[in-house]
Amino acid sequence: MIPLPTVHSRSAAAGFTLDPGLAGAVRALAGERDVPTAAVLAVALDVLLLHLGADVRPELRANPPFGQLLADVRDRGADGPAGQDVAARGGPALTVVPDLACREPAGEIEYPEGLLPPTAEAGLADRFVRVLRRLVADPALPVAAVDVLHPAERYRLLEELVGTEVESPPLTLPELVRRQVRATPEAPAVQDGRQELTYRQLDAESDRLAERLTAYGLGPESLVGLALPRSAELVVALLGILKSGAGYLPIDPRYPSRRLEFLLSDAAPALLLTDTATARALPDHGIPRHRVDARAPESGAPPRRSGGGAARPPLRPDNLAYLMYTSGSTGTPKGVAITHAGVVNGVSRLAAAVDLGPGARVLASTSVNFDVSVFEVFAALSTGAVVDVVRDVLALGERGGWTGGVMHTVPSVFAEMLDRFTGRLDAGVLMFAGEALTGELARQVHRAFPGTSVVNAYGQTESFYATAYTVPRGGAGRGAVPIGRPLGNMRAYVLGPGLAPVPPGVAGELYVGGAIGRGYHARPGLTAERFVADPFDRPGRRMYRTGDLARWNAEGQLEHLGRADTQMKVRGIRVEPAEIESVLAGHPGIAHAAVAVHPRPGSVGGHIVAYIVPATPSRTGADGQEAALAPRKLRRFVADRLPDHMIPSTFVALDRLPLGPNGKLDRGRLPVPGGGR
């Protein structure tokens, strides 16, 4: 459901006049379809409200022809809309008061003040007349196909704001880094608190690793699983894999064994790159391993080549750079394939947005399982900056602070650490992404760190980074900070019914086009569902359906309004409730399960709450079931199957899950826990 603005008790009105030709056409259509003349106006207004994000009658969302809606009015007879009270069903009423007796009838649309965005209010009457004219001229037109935009709005949305094409070098990631190696060979490239590598050393070490990897027969479109601890060696490994021509599959050895087994089975990498200690934590599998700390070749390893090293296969920008798994709505994780071209464009555009250059330091605190890590490493290495590898952002407290160029973090995580960082952090840019950045937090950051710029970035695993917004000092509003405009070579659309652009200020679903990912590994059906043809770009181009709600504000900046589906975020990490619910439903003592995210008392972030319906109703003496469903045991059950960030912190037992009239789970009626089980 698309949220409407808060509605106030006062009313507003928009007057309109129908020219003689249109008035006659309305009367003729009403007579032809055997409906009241006012009903034609009423249904046309409903169609307009559909495109303005109002909560209209459900049958309109099925995209019927306008003529079918008139037939429904005729069939309902006295129960159909008569033209005087036309409601956005389920919401406040809007009223059309037409005077159809005269040659040029005039009327007005009366509606509660605040029901519509100001941009929609301003041109409501003119928009209504144009929609009415279009529908009356072609009653067979599906309602979603009606264009409600003014020509100036269409130009602004699809030409000025949609995105900008900029020159982008047709390079792969190794070529992008190699260009910097030639420019600053002796400058520091990577450090981890124990060692430091210059650009020349990083290039040489990653070349040696790439040579060993190509001996396994790797090349473009091959896949290498990467499981290494956080150190400078991890950056060498990333670059070495890419230089071999292969893409990398990040693997976190801390994940439960079942999760790791699924990733290895689904992605089927040709090789695992790891070390001796990490290899012990990985599940048994038949995939060859290359240990970076092995003193001798492992059993089954290919022989070392002599005479100049392994021949490097050609690598192109459209080849695979990495395969990264995200939470899946069906309960199964899905792997997102991203190309070199997409990463090169993203890091190049973002590096320019934060003015990253030689000598700066970029904090690398994010797990390689998340694409923020791609920015942290390659935005630095492509501009002459230093990659400062740390265990995680909490390590900065142990260090006593941090000084550098760019720190990338999640709003809720940083908010919890703000007091600890005050006076101990000197960063040129704080970049936020992963969840909504509030204006209040932006103001707190500006007050605590006067010399720091705040950038709010937005993207999905499927698109890498798509937009960015630099928060003006003293200019943050009271709500969420905008996510900005598309980066160069990216495109953004806010679309409504029928993939039609909605007017500025109106909420719709956000689609991202341009340099987006390929799709989902071995999931052609899901790829076709989420990566759809872009009707506003050149033939053959695609756009990604994000599932996020957004709108363009008056300044031409995108505002993120939340999710259009059930997907949630916890500490900036995308979580599909279906995946957690699927695991809980597999517990023998649980009949049904649901998951929600609720604010954590005393904290900015949220936490996962699991609602369970026991398989056997609780009764006196059912001690065994009570023990089996104890929170401690349920957490252990989930922890054996899902990563830490997907483990519920609270469990609530219910007799039944709340259902809506359609028989589906009504998540809005799940009780806010007053305490866990």
TrEMBL record:
Residues 579-664 form the AMP-binding enzyme C-terminal domain. PROSITE patterns: AMP_BINDING. InterPro entries: AA_adenyl_dom, AMP-bd_C, AMP-bd_C_sf, AMP-binding_CS, AMP-dep_synth/lig_dom. GO terms for biological process: amino acid activation for nonribosomal peptide biosynthetic process; secondary metabolite biosynthetic process. Residues 178-520 form the AMP-dependent synthetase/ligase domain. Residues 283-315 are annotated as: Disordered. SUPFAM superfamilies: Acetyl-CoA synthetase-like (SSF56801). This is Amino acid adenylation domain-containing protein. Residues 283-296 have a biased composition (Basic and acidic residues). Pfam families: AMP-binding (PF00501), AMP-binding_C (PF13193). One of its GO terms (cellular component) is cytoplasm. GO terms for molecular function: phosphopantetheine binding.
